[in-house]
């Protein structure tokens, strides 16, 4: 690679950069480069009629000679014309910014294809995850990152310098072989949110129908009362906390399962099953969906006193007591119960918000790993404990009469308490000193089974 590498020397700010293609991206990129102090020369099929661009336009062959770095703002379908320009492009750094409208449209990645067309050029994949619009608007938090890959370290360095001057954060993803992965990025739509959203929608639907049958249809059939108005607030305010609590517990379940798996295997040098890996990777998104649902629960709870139905019931109750000249006794235990479940809910929600805030990249980047894991793990379990306790205290008296329910008449929140209770129970088990000691030994790599061939491979 030595002689080839030598052709790419570090550039100066005065050096001009070349852009092939005067389309949307070409214009936006040229604009940004120009603003950052670079001279820009465009290469176009129609230099005389391509409309206004920030700086000079030449034909492709002439433009290529003006710069060592050429940004190809052209669709991949048209790359073949570059072969005819091989004499001018050999030894140049060609920046492939292209994307495809669909996944797996071509057998090889665009940058790999370009490198095959022009083996004597240095192909670097970059900028494809940005948009023309974003480039034009200047760097903002959302579109500051750009991934880069290519086989020549010097070529990547030269392109990185330009990107850094544009205010972008460059993340090196390795050789040109990684370009397929980079080209797939813009096609993904919230990939990490898919599983949490599916779980949220699935659980919400299931609990909604269960509660609809139990609270509304059952009452109508057996008592002849139409309470369908309860669907909008009462039912919603049951579904949201139930799903929120289950999803918060599901954030912590894979961690506990991973620990149990390590204990069972007696080693940490073995991969977790794929489904567990995927589950662990989307815990943050799962927690944020749970937080959103918990926030809805808080809002719905706050509007309870202003609901017509509630005001009517309170008013009617007072009038009927006044007419009968009755008073209600004050129950100390009831006061304790309601206050304790409200306070557990408030504290749990406050910690839940803290977990949500610390999971934001700008905040978590400011924390050390120890601080982050203290909040997300230790305080996370405290949050789960408080929220679960909130659920138990809410149904305190009903739990005392659990025997009077059939499985299909159980209140929804009782069902929702199963998953968090299991997670907290397993966590307590893992905190037992003897279990904790063994897990620590396994996680520090002190305990493994060297005779296991897969472990041997990893240890070499
Ligand atoms: N637009 C965006 O937001 C983004 C675009 N990209 C990628 O950038 C590349 C360009 O996209 P965009 O600017 O939107 O596309 P446009 O269609 O707006 O522009 C493409 C340009 O390519 C040139 N061109 C068209 N046909 C040919 C041909 N047969 N031979 C040679 N050159 C040709 C033309 O320039 P001229 O007439 O001057 O020759 C044309 O203006 C694409 O690969 C796209 O995937 C990547 C990230 C974001
Ligand atoms: Fe609640």
UniProtKB/TrEMBL annotation:
Domain Pyrroline-5-carboxylate reductase catalytic N-terminal: from-to ranges: 17-100
InterPro entries: Fe3_Rdtase_TM_dom (IPR013130), NAD(P)-bd_dom_sf (IPR036291), P5C_Rdtase_cat_N (IPR028939), STEAP_metalloreductase (IPR051267)
Membrane-traversing stretches: 199-220, 240-261, 288-310, 341-360, 372-393, 413-435
One of the GO biological process terms: copper ion import
GO CC terms of this entry: endosome membrane; plasma membrane
Coiled-coil residue windows: none
Cofactor(s) required, per the database record: heme b; FAD
Compartments where located: Endosome membrane
Residues annotated as domain Ferric oxidoreductase: 242-387
GO molecular function: cupric reductase (NADH) activity; ferric-chelate reductase (NADPH) activity; metal ion binding
Family named by the database record: Belongs to the STEAP family.
Name of the molecule in the record: Uncharacterized protein
Organism: Periophthalmus magnuspinnatus
Taxonomic lineage of the native organism: Eukaryota, Metazoa, Chordata, Craniata, Vertebrata
